[in-house]
Design brief:
The chain is an alpha/beta fold. It has one domain (2-205): Vaccinia Virus protein VP39 (Rossmann fold, 3-Layer(aba) Sandwich), CATH 3.40.50. Helix content is 35%, strand content 18%. The chain contains eight helices and seven strands, in the order ααααβαβαββαβαββ. Strands 3-2-1-4-5-7-6 form a seven-stranded mixed sheet, with helices on both faces. β1 (66-70), α5 and β2 (89-94) form a beta-alpha-beta unit. α2 (13-32) runs antiparallel to α6 (97-110) and α4 crosses α5. The longest helix has 20 residues, at 13-32. It is globular, with a radius of gyration of 16 Å.
Length: 211
């Protein structure tokens, strides 16, 4: 938790309590359903929680914002963001049932009323959202094709509605189709830990597809 407080010093007591519970909860769930690798569970707060919260360094979701987390796995980045933004609604989606079971269990234990979970494929989810977030579930062009129609045209945030995608390494080729629209933020600008040296946040504004 100290690494979270280092970069987010203004957390409420409730947020600190909820974030502190993530460690024991994920260890408990990981014994039953392996959603976080053994080597990463000891680095949960740096590699999963803080990585998820990196999005909050670039946008503060306005109250009433709707967010879909695609390929959420055990709940990242959705659950940490839901703790930070209790007035934003989050739909966490994964095609694997056991991962959604973990999301539901953790959310219930934390008392998160702004989180719902769905076993589904992104393109089959009903409704539209201000933002779609994810942690590098597939090649970026393929991801955009899956969720393009899920973006609402209603604008209420400082960043334009669209994709907020956490990704590492060299992915310049993947961004070529979007080079005029996409913005890439190096997370090393925000965090000094070695883990974040090659990590980036991609923001791609998208409008609702025209019928």
């Amino acid at each position: 938790m100290e690494i979270i407080k280092k970069y987010f010093p203004d957390l409420t007591a409730r947020q600190q309590e909820q974030l502190a519970q993530l460690g024991p909860l994920y260890r408990e769930w990981n014994e039953k359903i392996n959603v976080i690798s053994r080597k990463d569970i000891d680095q949960l707060y740096e590699r999963h929680v803080l990585h998820s919260l990196a999005i909050a360094k670039y946008i503060r979701f306005a109250p009433g914002t709707s967010v879909m987390d695609v390929g959420t796995g055990g709940g990242f980045p959705g659950i940490p963001l839901a703790i930070l933004f209790p007035e934003t609604s989050f739909l966490l989606v994964d095609s694997i049932a056991k991962k959604i079971k973990v999301v539901e269990g953790v959310s219930q234990s934390l008392g998160l009323t702004n989180v719902s979970a769905q076993q589904n494929r992104a393109e089959k989810v009903d409704g539209q959202f201000d933002f779609v977030v994810s942690r590098a579930v597939t090649a970026f062009p393929k991801f955009v094709a899956l969720i393009r129609e899920k973006i609402s045209s209603r604008q209420q945030n400082t960043l334009a509605n669209g994709v907020l995608y956490l990704k590492g390494g060299d992915f310049s080729d993947e961004l070529k189709p979007f080079k005029k629209q996409v913005k890439v933020y190096p997370l090393s600008d925000q965090f000094e830990e070695e883990f974040f040296e090659t990590k980036k946040l991609i923001h791609l504004p998208l409008k609702k597809a025209r019928k």
